[in-house]
Amino acid sequence: MHIRCRMVQPLALDISLQVRGFTVLLGVSGVGKSTLLKAIAGLLPAQVSPYGDLAVEQRPIAYLPQGYALFPHLRAWENVAFPLSRSAHRRTDALALLQRVGLEDLANRFPSELSGGQKQRVALARALARKPRLLLLDEPTSALDMATRDEVMDELVREIYEFGIPVLAVSHDPHLAMLADHMAILRDGRIVQEGAPTEVFARPGHVASARLLGFRNFLSGRVIDSEDESHLQVAGSDWQLQAEWQAGLSVGTSVQLALRAEDIYLQETGATHFCPNPLSVQVKACRKEGLSMRLYLEGPTPLEMLLPRPQAEAAQISVGNFLKVCVQPRHVQIMTAE
User: Fold this and answer.
1) I need a surface site. Which of 23, 95, 105, 326 has the fewest CB within 10 A?
2) Mind telling me which residue stretches traverse the membrane in this protein (predicted)?
3) What is the pLDDT of residue 271?
């Protein structure tokens, strides 16, 4: 499904977006993600395709807002039954939908008696009662705690696939995008990148996109060698790194490099394997992060590094230590300077 949306107020948006299976739209807070969903649903004035020529109540769209908006005075089955036509089969139909999301046994509970994941599934059942052709989810992980987020979202995605409805979920959480069939990034009122999650996470097109996707290290430099069509050499004032070759980047081109903290690793003393991108650094600060250790490094360029548990325990690193670190060229993401 191809979605087009143009609006001026309350935010300027000019969106062209493919929705393929479970699609996640990422963006920082305030960029217009929720506004876009409301416009598609008909709750805000906008030029929208498809269904833009239909009144709100006629659009075959189901919309799950943040917090799920369940009626607190209605039981679970009554919430699900709310959009159903008034008939003798109304309760039976609502119970059937609750059964499909695994909550038939909780049909008589009020929202206050349900967990975050259970509320989400009641809201999903209520949305599906409309028999929509498109399902909109607004920050579906926002009301879930970290302990249950993965389990609840895995289950939700599985249920969505069973219903066979295209879904557009908006979020600032890149973890959710990892579960998607298709993803896009919203910035400055437009889509700046979209594709399969494996493609977008591996090759962010902009520094802002890379930050949103979890990159922590950014370096500005120039291409100094692009003759070998397997690698590029990029240099800054005191450093030089090798990256995988990209077409259209000639010698002298200004570029931005992005490195994930977890892709930088220690070069062990006496190691026999070749390190294509060695850097000598000093530990400026360090802190434990769960079972890992995050290091803040000084050297040719400031870097942030995340050591996994085995390395953190074996290395016994402390502030002031001098280290040799390395990053593989395939993990050096290169973007044209913004």
Assistant:
1) 105
2) none
3) 61
| Under 8 Å between Cβ of 174 and 185 | no
By DSSP bridging, strand 303-307 and strand 22-26 are unpaired
- The rounded distance, in Å, linking the Cα atoms of 207 and 48 is 30
Task: State the Cα–Cα distance between residues 306 and 294, nearest whole angstrom.
Answer: 4
Is 219 in a helix, a strand, or coil?
strand
59 Cβ contact partners less than 8 Å away, ≥ 6 residues apart: 41, 42, 51
Both tokens of 336, joined, read 């044209």
74's CB contacts (< 8 A; 6+ apart) are: 82, 110, 111
Local structure of 75: helix, strand or coil: coil
Q: Which fold has domain 2-209?
A: Rossmann fold (3.40.50)
pLDDT one-digit tens code per residue, 2-34: 999 999 988 899 999 999 999 999 999 889 999
- Sign of the CA dihedral running 51, 3, 174, 28: negative
C-beta of residue 121 within 8 angstroms of C-beta of residue 156: yes
The pLDDT value recorded for residue 146 is 67
Which pLDDT score, from 0 to 100, does residue 338 have?
Answer: 60
Long-range contacts of 293-299 (CB under 8 A, 24+ apart): 293/317, 294/261, 297/323, 297/325
Assign domain 215-336 to a CATH class. Answer: mainly beta
- C-alpha 49: how far from chain center: 24
Q: Is the pLDDT of residue 315 over 90?
A: no
Round to whole Å and give the CA distance between 41 and 134: 10
Cα(9)–Cα(221) distance, rounded to whole angstroms? 39
Predicted TM-score (pTM) of the model is 0.82
Residue with tokens 């107020």: 9
Interior CA angle at 320 toward 220 and 329, to 5°?
A: 35
